[in-house]
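Entry — protein

Goal — fold tokens:
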Amino acid sequence: MVLVVVALIVQQMGLWLGVAYACTFLYGASVRYFQGKIDTDYNHLPGPLETIPSIWWVNRSYHWRHHFDDVNAYYSGVFPLVDKILGTGLSLKGKTIALTGASGALGQALAAELVKNNAKVVALTTNPEKLVEQVGVKVVSWQLGNEANLKDSLEKVDILIINHGINVYASRTPEAINSSYEVNTFSALRLIDIFSTTVTGPQAKATKEIWVNTSEAEVSPALSPLYELSKRALGDIVTLKRLDGDCVIRKLILGPFKSQLNPYGVMSAQQVARAILFLARRDFRNIIVAINPLTYLLFPLKETSTSLYYRVFSRTAKRTDANNSRKE
């Protein structure tokens, strides 16, 4: 009531937005009181969290993180606008975060930025000799094709960042085709499936996440046909897997940055790493860091249309009888 009076006197649009936002709380409280349906508000109901945190509004999984994840984050009450502005839509503090491609330029930059954000980093690398000892970073060696051996390590991980890749540039030999898809697509998908099996327990859907570097190549030329094809295949299957809602899956849509894969990149790996975490803390599910303005237009259109198509013409494995699957 006080806010309404002040808004009438000052007549500022911002105050009226505050009034509208406050009314959403009043409406929910009134419905609960007069209908007497539940003893507490929906977001505080007991029981396991069965859905992932919503990106559009504050559901139970989103809100409960304020209690068991970080009391200094997840402030929003109905819509997550406040957290997007403050950068409190995802807390990295105390999280155990594993990332592949840790010996590469972006991997090392991400590890450094994550440590600055008080995260505990597990650097998954096939080249451990390239990494120097760093406080807050545990190095774990792994080999391509042996992703299953990482399951025990991933059990205790909150966020898995899939960042490894290969670029064969202009080559189109059978070996180049096989290595491009094996590294850029199939290895990443195996890691996603393995990590998804660790999403258990009453709080896992609210805290477990996968970040996948699918690259700007999803929608733009990379001057490397096999890199584009393998990354697009990965991106499309990640879009498909998102529909199952096992955990939050973020896509990293990254433009050209200077690295071993692209020595002519425009951006630096440090710039890209900082931008990724800036957007992740604001709960962006599609994290675009690119210099091409068309990417910011084309990718959302592509992702929305593809997701809708998959939603209509595919079904989750939980509802599909394997015995009735059709074989060509």
Observations:
- The domain at 96-314 is CATH 3.40.50.720 (Rossmann fold).
- DSSP finds eleven helices and seven strands in the chain.
